[in-house]
Specification:
36% of the residues lie in helices and 30% in strands. By secondary structure, it is α+β, with helices and mostly antiparallel strands. It starts with a strand and ends with a strand.
Length: 177
């Protein structure tokens, strides 16, 4: 079994940890307010509320900051990103390189086109366009690998080491498009 890593969008990481910091500060303020309202008679409750809020915020940020990954075993490519999964048989799949940064590139997922301050600027998981839907792991715009399985399933992937990823897929039975 081979495992491949994907880069995580820096903007997604900042949003995850920024949101966790906000929630942690909110929990600390609520703990301080509880301390003040009760006149300091329930310090364990106030500290417990603040501590639980900080812990839950950190766990939430760790969950949102999880990196996409792919594993290739027994001719099946399993990709997990954004809490969504896809499994594709590689035998007979076609590989193509696509550059999503150049003008005239294929239609980009909406999250890459319409960047706003609350959007991470990446495309993780299932995407839709006029031609159907596909699975994407794109931390931004740039060169990517398109995998079209024999059953028509499409994947757009941007691994950290595209050469090793491509070589592993070719060795598993994929072919150049």
């Amino acid at each position: 079994m081979q495992t491949f890593a994907f880069p995580l969008s820096p903007r997604r990481r900042r949003l995850a940890w920024g949101g966790a910091l906000f929630l942690a500060l909110d929990a600390i303020v609520m703990g301080a307010a509880l301390w003040w309202i009760t006149g300091g008679r329930h310090p364990a409750l106030a500290l417990g509320l603040a501590g639980a809020g900080v812990a839950v915020s950190a766990l939430l940020a760790l969950a949102l900051d999880r990196r996409p990954r792919a594993t290739l075993a027994n001719g099946i490519l399993r990709v997990e990103a954004g809490y969504q999964r896809v499994s594709v048989a590689i035998e007979g799949a076609r590989l193509a390189e696509i550059d999503l940064a150049r003008p005239g590139a294929p239609a980009l997922p909406r999250s890459l086109v319409d960047e706003r301050w609350w959007q991470p600027g990446d495309a993780l998981g299932w995407q839709r366009d006029g031609g159907g839907r596909w699975f994407a792991v794109l931390p931004g715009r740039g060169p990517a690998i398109e995998v079209v399985a024999a059953d028509g399933e499409r994947l757009w992937l941007m691994p950290e080491d595209p050469g090793a990823f491509r070589a592993a897929l070719l060795a598993a039975g994929a072919r150049e498009a």
